[in-house]
Amino acid sequence: MIAFVQGMLVSASTRESQQWVVIDVQGVGYQVWTHSRALAQLPNLGSLLKMHTVLVPREDSMTLYGFLEEQERELFTLLTSVSGVGPRLALALLDTLGAMELVQAVIRENFRALALTPGVGSKTAQRITLELKSKMEKFHQEAGLGVASGVSVQPQIYEEAQMALLALGFSPKEVAQALQQVSGQNPGSAAEEWIRSAIAWLSSR
């Protein structure tokens, strides 16, 4: 297993909803597949970059998937252990929801949130929850993740705010980020208050 790759960031690319970077490690260029959230946080080209990686062997290829945080690599490994969830779908889940939101969606059995990811239908969302709920609860405790948005209110209130924001045209990523920000502001226990606070935060960006 290649646990991490560290070297000079040579390039970062996107094509057909797939993202990757090339890292120069002592004259050898490693192509590492990742997601758009990671690309948005990369340092400048030519800077030192360390990515926590998972090597996925296939009959005709050896593919590296990489993450800026070790916790994301662990979540990726958990997701790909689920029947029917391959590396690309696991990346898409992390990209759409982010680590904390993904963990909370599984723990809360929020199928609708999981199904926001392209390629994840209701059956796949249910299978992910069924196979990973207890593991995600343990992961959440051991990783020391902060309290994710929506935990302090009833799940149905959080989900109502989430669906309302999506209906207004905000992307799943924007909604996840906004609700995470709002959760630290103690907006109250009504979905309308969460929605107003989230819209205000999104409008101020």
Mean pLDDT: 87
- Ranges with pLDDT <50 over ≥5 residues? 146-151
What is the string of SSEs from the N terminus onward? EEEHEEHHHHHHHH
Strand content: 15-25%
Provide the CATH top-level class of the largest domain. Mainly Alpha
The CATH architecture assignment of the largest domain turns out to be Orthogonal Bundle
Helix content: 40-55%
Task: Supply the number of helical segments.
Answer: 9
The major β-sheet equals: 5 strands, mixed, barrel
**Strand arrangement, major sheet:** 1-2-3-5-4
N/C terminus separation: 40 Å
* Structural domain count: 3
What do these coordinates show?
The chain has helices at residues 36-40, 70-80, 87-97, 99-107, 111-114, 122-143, 155-167, 172-183, 191-203, and strands spanning 4-15, 18-25, 28-34, 48-57, 62-67. It has 205 residues and is α+β, with helices and mostly antiparallel strands. The protein is built from nine helices and five strands. 49% of the residues lie in helices and 21% in strands. It folds into three domains: 4-67, Beta Barrel (OB fold (Dihydrolipoamide Acetyltransferase, E2P)), CATH 2.40.50.140; 70-143, 5' to 3' exonuclease, C-terminal subdomain (DNA polymerase, domain 1), CATH 1.10.150; 155-203, Orthogonal Bundle (Helicase, Ruva Protein, domain 3). The longest helix has 22 residues, at 122-143.
Report a brief summary of the structure:
A 5-stranded mixed barrel has the order 1-2-3-5-4.
